[in-house]
Amino acid sequence: MNAIIKESPSLAQELRTALERGEGDLLSELVGAHPAQDIALALGELPRQHWHTLFERLGHERAAEVYAHLPTEHQTELLQNLDHDQASRLIGELSYDDAAAVLDELQDEHAEAILDALPEGDQQILNSLLAYPEESAGRIMTPEFATVRPEWTVAEALDHLREHSEIAETVNTIFAVTPKGQLLGWVRLKELLLSRPTTSVQTTLHSDIVSIEAHEDQEEAARRISHYDLDVLPVVDEWGSILGIITVDDVLDIIRDETTEDFHRMAAVADLPLSLRDASLKMLYRKRIGWLVILVVVNILSGTAITFFEASIEAVVALVFFLPMVIATGGNAGAQASTLMVRALATGDIQASDWFRLGLKEILVATALGLALAASIWLTGTWLGTMQIANAIAIAMFLVVLFGSLFGMTLPFVLTRLKLDPATASAPLITSVVDVVGIVIYFGVATAILQLG
Amino acid sequence: MNAIIKESPSLAQELRTALERGEGDLLSELVGAHPAQDIALALGELPRQHWHTLFERLGHERAAEVYAHLPTEHQTELLQNLDHDQASRLIGELSYDDAAAVLDELQDEHAEAILDALPEGDQQILNSLLAYPEESAGRIMTPEFATVRPEWTVAEALDHLREHSEIAETVNTIFAVTPKGQLLGWVRLKELLLSRPTTSVQTTLHSDIVSIEAHEDQEEAARRISHYDLDVLPVVDEWGSILGIITVDDVLDIIRDETTEDFHRMAAVADLPLSLRDASLKMLYRKRIGWLVILVVVNILSGTAITFFEASIEAVVALVFFLPMVIATGGNAGAQASTLMVRALATGDIQASDWFRLGLKEILVATALGLALAASIWLTGTWLGTMQIANAIAIAMFLVVLFGSLFGMTLPFVLTRLKLDPATASAPLITSVVDVVGIVIYFGVATAILQLG
């Protein structure tokens, strides 16, 4: 994906000017003409003293919309400057899934004080959402949705939706349920609109229902919505009764965050909770030093292996010349293989059970890569050294590329089997391990062929 | 993202049994109860001779739905087994954006023959879509949408939508336009449903419009839909008149594909057009060998550098022991830095113009990382060698980590400036370059401090 270069004049600048000059009308016009997401972004760049004025100018409903799009640390900061009643009013305007996410980030006493000031009904709903495990589908669902009954007529269903559309988050896809909330089918709102009013809802229903259990992982919700092109995914309890819905815009954020996590892990960076823009120096240091130190330990083995083969190095100095080429190429082939597997596992393109079939394929691809690279290094070898040296480094290249590819390909599957994230098979990890094994293979082959040591 | 393990019994197996036993009722039930995406997946695993029977059983509309979700090569294969009339009928059932995508993959004569057999109106629309540049927003928009006029009453608007909802792809968000198609505002369908029928549409409109020009990049469309949590993004011409709409499910696929491309580039794999599952051995070989060979050439420089410092190696053998540790750590720190930048650029978290600020931050983080790693290697050095050696390798470690981090951090921005994909700054490329420079720094520092050579 190419980088995005913002060209528009800064909204933050315009807002700041309006705020400093006290131009209320201009301010209202600006906040009316820009999406809540842009106002939330601009707010972060404004001095703290303007936050309150800007929020007052937004009005209740829009203030909640902007608030919902602020980064977590700004949300918390803003709440801490409000008393419990003001805070409760703001939280009360949020949709339940957004409200639960905000409360989850607060300290327990603070969250409880805010909850206590909310209406009884809201308290119950938020407490039930917060009772689901973190990262579960139940945590991000919204319990505000409208369902219809199959025995109703289309006119009755539309009346019912009209009455409930104010509280329901989306009404593009409507679910028909039994009195106990069991899913019977779904229908698009536009299909209802198009049907004759006296038709029964039953006849308009589609029966291919995709749902998710509340305790399942959010990522699985994201995968289903993405795979089945859904705008709404119903969340059900273990008996199949509908508890809430997850909408496509909720999972876009999850997909983006999960993918970023995978990118970072693949480069041996521990999970950064914030955006790179907002991450502190201390956090960046802490998230990077861990793997660097672990890999230094692996690299000590490389040093040990080289020292072990010192006699060979002194006997045939040309071997040192070709060493970086061979072990780096093995590491690179391994990084390619592991990345292909990690990404295909993450998108659901392949499953853990495909290991054997993909392993066979990788053996063939790696053999082809190894032969091509061995041939080119053999030519360089005969040109710069003896035929014997050329043979030794070519065989070593082939074996190291084969080892690197198979190791890189296998590690993500092993991690999956161990219930770890396959993305832990980072390029730096693969490269470091292939370095160690590659040095042993390289000097082992050279010692045998050149009859050293 | 954790790998997904499929546990359900295979739909392909069930379909196959029903097809082989000729159980038509079971077949109809199976295809009715499963989403089109699952049927499309299962089809790929069925023998070719069953494809036709299965498609006949689906009925026109659902056949088109399943067809739209087949991988490109299966779509082409199926079309080639149909005569032009049959092919045109299938293409005619697809939504325009899906139809344009299929025609785009066919050979020109074949595509033209199918186009010719379509109704005049469809031909015109498809030709206009195919005239937009590849990867542009215009290519993936659907021209089937309904708009309303601000001077209408809500009742008139709803009647209009009801009349046009059969052809319009989505009606969740409605755009109000001038007679010339200029965007005036948007309103949610549920807001219209909730308003009094005699209200004017004007009073229900939101004015914060996000749109995209038809010639802009698809990725930009994906970014806007994702950033603004839109379900529909209007596509406009250079004068701001609406041409079509892009829906959120269209961009989920684009985001997934672009992200996969980034993952592959970051591991020095050229773009794989197919899924890993379906990629042939030859394609996998070709997409991996290119960078491996280029990096071998870079690694030749590493070998040359080492050979150049042979005298130092022979004088102080301990230097070889610490070499892999120092240069690998520099490469790892560089891979971390480049991945953080590439991903943040791709998500829009940072912009190309942030280079200077992030560069300063990286200098500080890299200094902290370099000092910590230098301290640990210094301790190992004094333990295994002399104080002088410890000093030399610690200074080298600090400088190599600093160089690696800054190089890894800078390269994505340089590539962006050159209008290349920042993801070309792959971990293998960074590692290989840092290897070469790292060897020179390492032996340069060692030669100076140990007064060798």
How would you describe this structure to a colleague?
The structure is a homodimer of 453-residue chains. Chain A contains 22 helices and six strands. Helices cover 66% and strands 6% of the residues of chain A. Chain A has 453 residues and is mostly helical. In chain A, α4 crosses α5 (60-68) and α19 (318-347) runs parallel beside α21. Chain A is elongated. Chain A has three domains: 11-135, MgtE N-terminal fold; 147-254, CBS-domain (Roll); 281-449, Orthogonal Bundle (Tetracycline Repressor, domain 2). The first copy, chain A, has helices at residues 11-20, 24-33, 36-45, 48-58, 60-68, 72-80, 84-93, 96-105, 108-116, 120-130, 137-140, 154-164, 189-194, 201-204, 218-227, 248-266, 281-308, 310-315, 318-347, 355-384, 387-417, 427-449; strands at 147-148, 173-177, 183-188, 212-213, 232-236, 242-247. Chain A has a three-stranded mixed beta sheet with strand order 1-2-3. A three-stranded mixed beta sheet of chain A has the order 4-5-6. Residues 1-7 of chain A have low confidence and may be disordered. At the A-B interface, α12, α13, α15, α16 and α17 of A face α12, α13, α14, α15 and α16 of B.
Tell me the strand order in the biggest sheet of chain A: 1-2-3
- Please report the distance between the alpha carbons of the first and last residues of chain A: 52 Å
Count all strands of chain A and give the number.
6
- The domain tally of chain A reads 3
In the CATH hierarchy, the third-tier topology of the largest domain in chain A is known as Tetracycline Repressor, domain 2
Sequence stretches where pLDDT stays below 50 over 5 or more residues of chain A: 1-7
Q: Rg of chain A, please?
A: 30 Å
Helix proportion of chain A? 55-70%
Classified by CATH, the class of the largest domain in chain A is: Mainly Alpha
Largest interface: A-B, 132 and 133 residues
* Biggest sheet character of chain A: 3 strands, mixed
CATH architectural arrangement of the largest domain in chain A? Orthogonal Bundle
